[in-house]
Amino acid sequence: MSQRERWILYPLLFLALGTSLRDKLIPSRLRPLSVDAVTVRCAQLEVVDADDRTALRLGAVEQAGYVELYDKFGRSVLLLGPDENGTRYGLYARVPGRGARVPLSLYAMPELPAEAPQAE
Fold this sequence. Notes:
By secondary structure, the protein is of the alpha+beta class. 19% of the residues lie in helices and 33% in strands.
């Protein structure tokens, strides 16, 4: 290998090694302050506070979506979504100390057709 080839090859080699090890040696703590988007698609969205405790959770289950609110201790306090059977949709509150869900308002979920109607 000539002297000229060494002056080209070795800096490129160290550059490649440095960039591949950068996130392992120097952890990245940068978080974006805001994100602008027209549409965000995900299976579940979780909002956390400064102490990394869940404050709000949005998600989807087999038949419907749900919204769950948490208190400052990370305990679920309100749930807007389907019941365990998936037959009724409603607003549920958790009883402190017992963990049981108390329905605040309910309605029966309508039967969905096997195929969704096509838009014209």
